[in-house]
Amino acid sequence: MNPQEYVQQKAAASGSSFYYAFLFLPKPRRAAITAFYAFCREIDDVVDEMVDPGIAASKLAWWRSEVMQAFAGCPTHPVLQALLPLAADYRIESRHLLAVLDGCQMDLEQTRYLDFANLQRYCHLVAGVVGEVAANIFGQTDARTTAYAHKLGLALQLTNIIRDVGEDALRSRIYLPVNELQMHGVKAHELLKRKGDADFQRRFSTLMQFQAARAHAAYDEALTLLPEVDRRAQKPGLMMASIYRSLLREIERDDFAVLNQRVSLTPLRKFWLAWRVQALGRL
Questions:
Q1: Which helix (H) or strand (E) holds 30?
Q2: Tens digits of per-residue pLDDT, 146-180?
Q3: Hey, what domains does the chain have and what are their CATH numbers?
Q4: Could you tell me the end-to-end alpha-carbon distance of the chain, in angstroms, rounded to an integer?
Q5: CA 240, 246, 250, 251 torsion: positive or negative?
Q6: Ramachandran sector of residue 255 (left: φ over 0; alpha: ψ -120 to 50; beta: rest)
Q7: Residue 269: which residues within 8 A CB-CB, separation 6 or more?
Q8: Distance of alpha carbon 170 from alpha carbon 21, whole angstroms
Q9: Are 122 and 104 in contact (CB under 8 A)?
């Protein structure tokens, strides 16, 4: 299997909504975003599949070394062998990849976030920087598009956090800010149990409505920040906004039944939402 086949398989196997947005890109840009996304999946897997934190930390350290070695001209992993020949064309720098590693390092060292400012730093590393790289690959001509990309990355990550509350609790992780749990009278141990009485469900629903409102505000702000000159090139990001915001609305309609199930959209619906943006230019 050559590096290009490896990253294609990695991206497709994830089942992520991102894959549907890539389908409409010209081949060179699709190759670049697929390789970059495969890198992000590799790093995420270090944390998601963690059994021993020490081993996970060693793996992240290896990846740091591999990134520096790759940008010095000697990549050894197939993901970076696929990505590096395209990096200069799309302004992908080592600092971008190292930021993603910094975000995943936070996952190893931190299971709670005291407030939204603390959480926002994490989102910047694992999603905002990813959005910046993606915007460059899609085709950015206006510097203001970077602000849009970071805000959209925040909106997508906040949606992920809402969707994954139950799955994160299984790993003893809570990404909802501690001060906001306190504000809505929700205890951490109640989230970790992933169940409760009617009173808990009421408090949890109110907390999650607060989280969803912030995510919607981030989507609205991102769309406002996108310069018209780059709107056509940034359609893949708009596809992601359409898919993830539709997912957020599904979660809201289910009254945030995320503690014991994973709410998702069907592949056909994801494709239709992506096609609608591509064909009609609207979310």
A1: helix 27-48
A2: 999 999 999 999 999 999 999 999 989 999 999 99
A3: 1-109 (1.10.600.10), 111-274 (1.10.600.10)
A4: 37
A5: positive
A6: left
A7: 246
A8: 30
A9: no
Question: Does residue 19 surpass a pLDDT of 80?
Answer: no
Q: Phi, psi (5° rounding) for residue 75? A: -70, 140
Cβ-proximal residues to 59 (8 Å cutoff; 6+ apart), any chain: 46
Q: Where does the pLDDT of residue 79 fall: very low under 50, low under 70, confident under 90, or very high at 90 and above?
A: very high
| Rounded distance between C-alpha atoms, residue 180 and residue 186, angstroms | 8
pLDDT over 90 at 102, yes or no = yes
Q: What are the strands, taking DSSP E only, across the chain?
A: none
Where does the pLDDT of residue 281 fall: very low under 50, low under 70, confident under 90, or very high at 90 and above? low
Cβ atoms of 63 and 99 closer than 8 Å = no
Render pLDDT for 182-207 as a digit per residue (tens, 0 to 9): 999 999 999 999 888 899 999 999 99
The model's pLDDT over 125-135, given as tens digits with 9 standing for 90+, comes to 999 999 999 99
Nearest residue to 240 (alpha-carbon basis) of 147, 138, 164, 139? 138
Instruction: Using the structure block, give the residue that is written with the tokens 């993830």.
Output: 244
CB atoms within 10 A of CB 55: 11
Q: Is the pTM of this model over 0.85?
A: yes
Cα–Cα dist 16/209, whole Å: 25
Is residue 14 over pLDDT 70? no
Question: How many H helices and E strands in the chain?
Answer: 15, 0
Q: From residue 27, how far is each of 23, 92, 249 by CA, in Å? A: 9, 17, 32
| The two three-digit tokens of residue 79, written as one number | 């993901």
Q: Cα separation of 47 and 269, whole Å?
A: 29
